[in-house]
Task: inverse folding
């Protein structure tokens, strides 16, 4: 069958709000989810095209490319912030493709399938880890028999006016069984622009070495990949690294796992591979401070990693407890200093505005961030995303949450949730002030200038600087 996969548009105003302060630093990277789907479809001899609208493709051009391809199935991925756009382009495309089957997958439909079906845009939803589910759904549609799709695990559809959700499908244990993402169907890596705080060299390739996160943070939705940690073999990972560099021209790698350092022996194998095969290729990773020690951080630094991203979230232990982070402010501080001692740059994510936030805890977080030798800090607006424990609690308490405006964590103009102890204006003013107080310190600016290692990094830092000034 001919299958068109679409990453919906998500422009600077939707991501950053009306002022579009962060328009030059929005993290725009290829959709690995669609690239994996495309790869498994091609393995089954289907013809696949990917259209990435995240790079600014206009609706008319989208229709023209779709018409040229003549798809039988159109699949769209959607996060919560991008879901409204996904619905909009489906309604637009249906005018030209009334007989095409429309399918939506990704974080939002998986976490909130009934609400997603209420949009009345999609024929089917793929819920969870999509590769095996999507292939089985395609097979059902291809055969065009009269049976109902109830036996396909992991989908939602409408029957007789009611939403039917089938039994969930077990996650894929053998991740090596999946083909590498079909990057050749995406725009070239050079067309993308990751956030300037995250790279030294461009183009950058994103790779996932594992799926599933056993942490139980109350603000995080784990519906797609689940809680069971599953890892690829080191040889499988290194073969993809090799392909990304040799075939697609990557000059830097970002390992995008939720907790890259959870299995230390696995990390050690990847480090050996990076040192042996690509000792001059810089790379970065994401992890938690309670999943590292000094020796591990030194090991990844010696293997070419130059930066680690920690989710520190707060400078208040009470907030961390409510978020169920599993660590303390002191542990976070120790992790940051370990990383710096090992020679790594450190990015930190802070979650600002959860239900337990007060003026005092906000100030503690800002003070904590400024006290640490951080290279970058992101003060992310709290959004109670569907599928998270906090979202469920708020809904049970009677809160009404509208995701149409302000569901991006970097939109500092529109708020869909404000803590009870804070007013919206006060909350917004703090977010703006936090960025300025952290980044506009003379000592910080001097330190950043002295740390620059490439022209790409310098250009990115200049863009970031002007983004902060425009807040």
Result:
């Amino acid at each position: 069958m001919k299958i068109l996969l679409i990453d919906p548009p998500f422009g600077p105003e939707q991501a950053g709000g009306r002022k579009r302060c962060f328009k030059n630093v929005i993290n725009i990277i290829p959709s690995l989810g669609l690239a994996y789907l495309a790869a498994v479809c091609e393995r089954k001899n289907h013809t696949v095209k990917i259209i990435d609208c995240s790079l600014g493709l206009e609706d008319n051009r989208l229709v023209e490319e779709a018409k040229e391809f003549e798809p039988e199935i159109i699949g769209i991925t959607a996060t919560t912030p991008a879901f409204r756009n996904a619905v909009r382009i489906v309604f637009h495309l249906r005018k030209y493709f009334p007989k095409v089957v429309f399918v939506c997958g990704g974080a939002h439909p998986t976490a909130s399938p009934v609400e997603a079906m209420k949009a009345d845009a999609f024929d089917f939803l793929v819920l969870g880890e999509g590769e095996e589910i999507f292939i089985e759904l395609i097979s059902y549609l291809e055969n065009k028999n009269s049976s109902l799709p109830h036996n396909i695990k992991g989908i939602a559809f409408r029957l007789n006016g009611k939403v039917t959700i089938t039994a969930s499908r077990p996650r894929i244990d053998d991740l090596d069984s999946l083909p590498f993402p079909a990057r050749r169907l995406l725009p070239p890596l050079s067309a993308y622009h990751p956030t300037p705080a995250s790279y030294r060299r461009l183009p950058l390739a994103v790779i996932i070495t594992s799926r599933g996160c056993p942490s139980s943070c109350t603000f995080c939705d784990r519906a797609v990949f689940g809680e069971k940690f599953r890892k690829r073999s080191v040889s499988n990972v290194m073969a993809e690294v090799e392909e990304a560099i040799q075939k697609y021209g990557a000059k830097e790698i970002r390992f995008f796992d939720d907790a890259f350092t959870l299995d230390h022996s696995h990390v050690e194998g990847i480090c050996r591979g990076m040192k042996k095969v690509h000792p001059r290729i810089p790379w970065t990773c994401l992890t938690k401070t309670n999943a590292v020690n000094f020796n591990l951080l030194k090991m990844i630094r010696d293997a070419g990693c130059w930066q680690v991203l920690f989710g520190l979230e707060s400078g208040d232990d009470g907030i961390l407890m409510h978020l169920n982070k599993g660590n303390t402010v002191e542990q976070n501080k120790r992790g940051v200093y370990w990383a710096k001692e090992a020679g790594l740059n450190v990015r930190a994510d802070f979650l600002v505005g959860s239900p337990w936030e007060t003026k005092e805890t906000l100030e503690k977080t800002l003070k904590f961030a400024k006290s640490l030798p951080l290279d970058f800090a992101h003060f992310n607006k709290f959004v109670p995303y569907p599928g998270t424990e906090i979202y469920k609690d708020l809904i049970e308490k009677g809160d009404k949450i509208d995701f149409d405006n302000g569901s991006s964590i970097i939109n500092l103009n529109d708020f869909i949730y404000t803590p009870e102890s804070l007013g919206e204006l006060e909350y917004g003013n703090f977010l703006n002030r936090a960025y300025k107080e952290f980044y506009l310190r003379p000592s910080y600016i001097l330190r950043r200038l002295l740390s620059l290692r490439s022209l790409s990094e310098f250009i990115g830092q200049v863009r970031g600087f002007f983004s902060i000034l425009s807040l």
Summary: The mean pLDDT is 93. The longest strand covers residues 305-313.
